[in-house]
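User:
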Amino acid sequence: MRYCKYLNHEGGIDVPRYAVVEERGDGWWAVAPMGPPEEDLAARMAGHEADAGGFEPRPLAALRLLAPVTPSKILCVGRNYRDHATELGNEVPKEPLLFLKPPSSLLAPGGTIVMPRLSKRVDYEGELGIVMGKRCSRIGPEEDVRPYIRGYVIVNDVTARDIQKSDGQWTRGKGFDTFCPVGPIVSDEVEPIAGAALTVTTRLNGEVKQQGATGDFIFSIPELLRYITAAITLEAGDLIPTGTPAGVGPVQAGDRIEVTIDGLGRLENIFTAQ
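Assistant: Predicted structure:
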């Protein structure tokens, strides 16, 4: 299953809707309506009866896309690639390093990332995100984590680097409004746990700045979910960005950032000054 979330103009108002997504020769297409992913599978695939009769397949580029997640929390993993930890002069963590971004930081594909006046350096960080599919707590050491995962998505963990360093803890530097672009789709058709590693690539104004593989994680996805749920209950819809590869760097107003991951498309946003 692959899906997106978008705004549909109905009866004079904009209504958020979900659609099943397929990859065609000319890109990603919304091909059928579906209900919210929090509903059971039959309800999701049935879609909204009012929409189903008149739904016409459309390329995602023609839709007003929204972030395809509605998390109660965004629980991020820091320094999960050795080369990223060392490029910032940090030690490789002995245990997963966790921090939170507020849901108010979410931003749609194509949305504008606002660089706050309070910061003199804002960085991009392309990442793979895990979208949880059901509530889980204290996942066992031998338990398969995959039944808890709804799918995967592209995330840009935008960071006010100077504020992150000066504060000592990361909430403010990571949590500004617009600092968590997510999308364009959620998919369970990629398999970074038992399948081939996924490549995360970030381009700044068309130039490759980051390229890393999820096979290079310090802490694997099962290790992360077991560690997190030993302390924190995860709910359906929660978002877990898994860390960024080396190559992070500063941006300027007007810069265009693109993050691509195998099978998940391209997340593109523009930066602007506040």
